[in-house]
Amino acid sequence: IPGNLPDPLHFPSGCPFHPRCFLKEHRCTTIEPPLEAKSNNHYAACIMREPYERSN
Description:
about 10% helix, alpha+beta, 1 helix, two-stranded antiparallel sheet
């Protein structure tokens, strides 16, 4: 994800990636997404993952 990392002393609310994510929605600022296994060695934590995968 492009952009600067958040200040570790002042992490954003919700998903820590929402300030620099092109998929963000308002709910990303309040919901911290759960980490889910995508495959044996790949994990994702994004509430927009499934809609994005369906559209591609």
